[in-house]
Amino acid sequence: MQPTQPQSVTVLGSTGSIGVSTLDVLARHPQRYSIYALTARERIAELAQQCRRFSPRFAVVASEQGAAELRELLAGEDLPTEILCGVDGLCQVSSDSQVDTVMAAIVGAAGLRPTLAAVEAGKKVLLANKEALVMAGPVFLRALFNSGAQLLPIDSEHNAIFQCLPQPCSNLGDAGVEKILLTGSGGPFRTRAVNDLHRVTPDEACAHPNWSMGRKISVDSATMMNKGLEFIEACLLFNARPEQIDVVVHPQSIVHSMVQYRDGSLLAQMGNPDMRTPIAHALAFPERIDSGVPALDLITQGRLDFEAPDTQRFPCLRLAREAMDAGGSAPTALNAANEVAVEAFLQGRLAFTSIAAVIEQVMNRAQAVELTGLDAVETADRHARELTQRVLGAL
Ligand SMILES: NC(=O)C1=CN([C@@H]2O[C@H](COP(=O)(O)OP(=O)(O)OC[C@H]3O[C@@H](n4cnc5c(N)ncnc54)[C@H](OP(=O)(O)O)[C@@H]3O)[C@@H](O)[C@H]2O)C=CC1
Ligand SMILES: CC(=O)[C@@H](O)[C@H](O)COP(=O)(O)O
Ligand SMILES: [Mn+2]
C-alpha cells in the first residue's frame, strides 16, 4: 500500500557512506519519500551535487565558511534550497514540524544533539550513529520514552536482531529470548600475526574485508571496538542484560546477527553485506521495499564460518564490557577516548595497538558519574577527551 503523501526525510550526514546509501534507496521510491534536508561537514562539492539532484528544502554545513562555499557553488541555479550552518541548523532540520523521518548518519559524538533533537520532536528516527546512543545511554532512552519517537536500528547487526525479534518486544524474557548473538567479521586483522599489528597503517586498517564504510568505523572494526560499541548499543536498544549478549565472529558478514529462543530456535537475518538492506527495511517498516541489493545466493556463497572472538588480540571488546558494567558515564568516556585515539591513529600519531592501550588508561582514570541529562553527558565527554589528549601527550 502506497502512502498518499510522501514521507519527508532529513538525512544527517548525507555525504557519508550511510548517507549516500540512504539517498540511493530514497531515489528508488520518489512517490514514497521526499527529501527535506541534507547535511555535511566538509565534502561541500558532494553536497552541492546532492542538492542539484534532490532539491532539498535545506542544506546544512558545519561552518560559515562551508556555507559560503556551498552558496557560491549553487549560485545562479534555480533550487529551493536554503543553506544553514552549525549545530543549530542541524537541530532545526531534525526537529522541524515538516519532517517525518530523520536518518541519523553523522559519525561520532557530533551527531548527538541533532539526533536527540529528532527524538525529542517525536520523529521516526533511523539510527546509524551508534556513538550518540552509546555516549548518552539513559538520557537518550529517557528522551525516547518521553516523546514517543520511533527508533529503528540501521546498524546491520541491530537491524538484524530487530528483524529476528517479535514486534513490539519490550522484554526479552517474556518473548522467550535466551541470547542475542551479535556477529562481527573480526575485521582486516583477524588472522594477521599479532606481532605485526603495531605497524599496520591507516589504509590497511580501513580496508574492511566485506563492508565499504567511513574511515572511523572501519578502524573500529579493525580494533573490534565497533563490536564493543555495538554490544552497548544492543544492551540499550533491546533492554538486554550484558550476559544475554554473546559476540560471535563470522568472517563472511552474511549472517548479520541472531536471536536464540528458549525452545532451541536460532533465528538469523542474512543478506549480502550492503547497508541498503537495513536502510530500506527501516525506512519502510513494517512494509518491505526494493533496496537495490541483489538476493543472497547461498550456493555461490558456499560456506558460513563462526568462531569465538580472540579477546587477547582485541582488548577493546573487554573494555566495552567493563564500561557497560561500570555504568553511568563510563560508556561516554569509552566512546570519547576511542574517538580521540582513532583520530590520532588516522593522522599517523598513534600506533594501531596503542588505541586500546590509550583507551584503557583513560578508563582507569576517568571518574564514572551519573548521566542526569545532556549537560552531564557533554561534560563527561569533554573530560574524557581532555584526559585522552593528556594520555596521548605523555606517550
Ligand atoms: N558505513 C557503514 O556501513 C555503517 C556506519 N554506521 C554508523 O553510521 C555513522 C556514519 O558512518 P559512515 O557513513 O561510515 O561515516 P562517514 O565518515 O562516511 O560519513 C559521516 C558523515 O557525517 C558528516 N560529519 C562528520 N563529522 C561531522 C560533524 N562534526 N558535524 C556534522 N557532520 C559531520 C560527514 O560529512 P563530510 O562528508 O562532509 O565529512 C558525513 O556526511 C557512524 O556512526 C557509523 O558508526 C553503522 C553501521 C554501518
Ligand atoms: C555494516 C555494519 O553494521 C558495520 O558495523 C559492520 O558490522 C562492521 O563490520 P565488523 O563486523 O567487522 O565490525
Ligand atoms: Mn554494525
From TrEMBL:
Gene3D superfamilies: 1.10.1740.10, NAD(P)-binding Rossmann-like Domain (3.40.50.720)
Molecular function GO labels: 1-deoxy-D-xylulose-5-phosphate reductoisomerase activity; isomerase activity; manganese ion binding; NADPH binding
Ranges for domain DXP reductoisomerase C-terminal: 270-386
Enzyme Commission no: 1.1.1.267
Catalyzed reactions: 2-C-methyl-D-erythritol 4-phosphate + NADP(+) = 1-deoxy-D-xylulose 5-phosphate + NADPH + H(+)
GO biological process, one term: isopentenyl diphosphate biosynthetic process, methylerythritol 4-phosphate pathway involved in terpenoid biosynthetic process
Residues at which 1-deoxy-D-xylulose 5-phosphate binds: 130, 156-157, 185, 208, 221, 226-227, 230
Pathway the protein acts in: Isoprenoid biosynthesis; isopentenyl diphosphate biosynthesis via DXP pathway; isopentenyl diphosphate from 1-deoxy-D-xylulose 5-phosphate: step 1/6
Enzyme class: oxidoreductase
Keywords, alphabetical: Isomerase, Isoprene biosynthesis, Magnesium, Manganese, Metal-binding, NADP, Oxidoreductase
Residues of the 1-deoxy-D-xylulose 5-phosphate reductoisomerase C-terminal domain: 151-238
Cofactor(s) of this protein: Mg(2+); Mn(2+)
Family: Belongs to the DXR family.
Protein name from the UniProt record: 1-deoxy-D-xylulose 5-phosphate reductoisomerase
